[in-house]
Structure formats: C-alpha cells, structure tokens
C-alpha cells in the first residue's frame, strides 16, 4: 500500500463530511488520481464538543477550526475543508486559503410546520435559531415572533423542530441540499429580505502556506468568481467583526470581472440596520470589502459597535 498523496482534514458532521468528500472527488477527477490517493481524516473540534451554551460565549467560531489547523501544521493532514462562513477571518499563521469551490445557492430556507412561510407564522410563534443574523432578520421582518436559541448540526435542528421545540427554524439551503434534506424547506427566503451570512454556500480549502505541491493541486478546484466574492465578504467581516456578537450579513457577486457587494450590520433586535453597497473591479475584491466595511463601521451607532467587544 502506498501512502495517500493527500490527506483531507475535516470535522465529522455529516455536512462537513459531504464537503470533504466533494473536495476529494474533485481532486481525484482534476488530477486523474487513484481513489486511495486521497484520504479523509476526521478531526473532533472543541466547537463540536460544546453543546450546552452559545458559541459566542465559549470563544466564537474559531473553535471549529483550531484542532484542524493544528493537524495541518503538524502534517497529519495536507489540506482542510471548511464551510467558508465558519472560517475565521484571520487564518492560523502558516495556513492559507488555497481554493474556493463554486458557490451553491446562498439563500436561507425556512423549515416550518403548519405555517410554511415567515408571513404565515402566527403572532407569538417560536423560531429557533442560534444565528444572531437570522434572529435579527426574523425580528426585523416579524417583531411579533419569538426567537429562541437552537444549536447543533442540521439534523439535530430538524429533530428539535420535529419534537415541537419551535414552530420553525432557518437553515442554509446549501447545507440542506448537500444532505439531501432540501425537501424540508417550506420557504426559500429572498436575499433582499434575508441577506445571507458572509461566505454562505461556499466551501473553502486551506493548506500549509509553504506546501507548494498541495496548493498547486488545489488551484484546479478554485472558482475565480466565488474566490473574488469570498475575498470581498471576508475583508468586510474582518473590518467589522471583532467578536461575532454582532449580526452581520451581505453578499458579493462577481460577473465578467465586475464585483457588486452589499453588506449590512443589524441591531440584535433587528430594529436598526446600517447598510451599504459598493461596486468595482473583481481584481480589487478584498479592497472593496474593506472599504465598505470602514464606511459601514463609521456610520454604525456606538451601541451597536459596542457589541464588537
Ligand atoms: N454554521 C453551520 C453551517 N455552516 C455552513 C452551513 C451551511 C452550508 C453553507 O453555508 O455552505 C451551516 C448550516 C446552516 O447554517 O444552515
């Protein structure tokens, strides 16, 4: 048995494994590799272990990548696959974003019961979500609903809904679709009403910064328009988000070399939004995102900014 050429580090959730397998298949197809040349290594992260309190209190989303970065830097794996929206804006030193796969549908879906849409939910109905962004957007559209915290992976949340812990929940359509669970969606929310999380729907692959062979192999998987959109969204987030305690949303789209980006910050109760838009050359994606970030930050009231911590 020869040792695998590429070992992929991933979390063990069904969604993470689907995404890692997608990268594995793409690598095999792009380079005509034997199936055994690419191995998937499941890594348990602190974030997976914490189920009893909000992650924003436990230390934020970096908790899902720390152990994977360690495996990468210790050479136990050669690349790591992440949902782009869960990847902290600051990558671990020595690691680099090396490919961004073509983005899937960026929209959120409502999974309702007898009420199938956000509009149809009766006053006082309970919406379960752990996302500050989704909570704020729900409250903005429907201040008469009650938002409760809902954590766990996609299946766990569907199970909680099934047990009646809420009347509806919200999940990314991309994740539902990857798991074959899109049939649970009872409404797909328009991005104008319900802008996605930065990075939503995109899969990001990191590698050791100095591993030229792996990074070169990953170049074949990179989707330029998605990479530009993600660079823009991540630099917006880097300017605004110190602590992930502030609801932030936005969406960049690159087409024929032009990039259009809309980004916003919300108050927790959804009553106030500060938003902006910017357009420019897709080659300047990161600079455009940072510029809009500074503009939005300058216009954001101090009490919202206080949540940046
Ligand atoms: N935070 C969990 C997470 N990270 C990425 C996705 C969905 C897939 C994607 O956005 O690419 C999900 C689940 C969800 O928010 O419904």
From TrEMBL:
It is an enzyme of class 2 (transferase). SUPFAM superfamilies: Periplasmic binding protein-like II, Porphobilinogen deaminase (hydroxymethylbilane synthase), C-terminal domain. Coiled coil: none annotated. GO terms for cellular component: cytoplasm. Residues 230-296 form the Porphobilinogen deaminase C-terminal domain. Its cofactor is dipyrromethane. It holds the Pfam family Porphobil_deam. Pathway: Porphyrin-containing compound metabolism; protoporphyrin-IX biosynthesis; coproporphyrinogen-III from 5-aminolevulinate: step 2/4. Residues 6-215 form the Porphobilinogen deaminase N-terminal domain. It catalyses: 4 porphobilinogen + H2O = hydroxymethylbilane + 4 NH4(+). The keyword Ion transport does not apply. GO terms for biological process: protoporphyrinogen IX biosynthetic process. Keywords: Porphyrin biosynthesis, Transferase. Tetrapolymerization of the monopyrrole PBG into the hydroxymethylbilane pre-uroporphyrinogen in several discrete steps. Monomer. This is Porphobilinogen deaminase. The lineage of its organism: Bacteria, Pseudomonadati, Pseudomonadota, Alphaproteobacteria, Hyphomicrobiales.
């Amino acid at each position: 048995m020869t040792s695998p050429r590429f070992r992929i580090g991933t979390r063990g959730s069904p969604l993470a494994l689907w995404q890692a397998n997608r990268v594995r298949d793409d690598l095999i197809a792009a380079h005509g590799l034997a199936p055994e040349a690419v191995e998937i290594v499941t890594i348990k992260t602190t974030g997976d272990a914490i189920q009893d309190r909000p992650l924003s209190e436990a230390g934020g989303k970096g908790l899902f990548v720390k152990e994977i970065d360690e495996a990468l830097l210790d050479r136990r794996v050669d690349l790591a696959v992440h949902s782009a929206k869960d990847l902290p804006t600051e990558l671990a030193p020595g690691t680099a974003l090396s490919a961004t796969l073509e983005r899937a549908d960026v929209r959120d879906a409502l999974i309702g019961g007898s009420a199938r849409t956000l509009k149809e939910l009766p006053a006082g109905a309970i919406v379960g979500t752990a996302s500050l962004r989704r909570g704020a957007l729900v409250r903005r559209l429907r201040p008469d609903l009650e938002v409760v915290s809902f954590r766990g992976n996609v299946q766990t949340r569907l199970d909680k809904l099934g047990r009646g812990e809420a009347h509806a929940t919200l999940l990314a359509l991309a994740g539902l679709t990857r798991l074959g669970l899109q049939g649970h969606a009872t409404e797909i929310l328009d991005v104008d009403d319900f802008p996605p999380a930065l990075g939503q729907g995109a899969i990001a692959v990191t590698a050791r910064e100095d591993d030229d062979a792996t990074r070169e192999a990953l170049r074949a998987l990179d989707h330029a328009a998605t990479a530009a959109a993600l660079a823009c969204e991540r630099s917006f987030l880097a300017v605004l988000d110190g602590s992930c305690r502030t609801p932030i949303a936005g969406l960049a789209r690159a087409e024929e070399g032009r990039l259009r980006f809309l980004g916003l910050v919300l108050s927790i109760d959804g009553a106030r939004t500060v938003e902006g838009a910017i357009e420019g050359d897709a080659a300047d994606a990161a600079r455009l995102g940072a510029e809009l970030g500074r503009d939005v930050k300058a216009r954001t009231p101090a009490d919202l900014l206080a949540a940046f911590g």
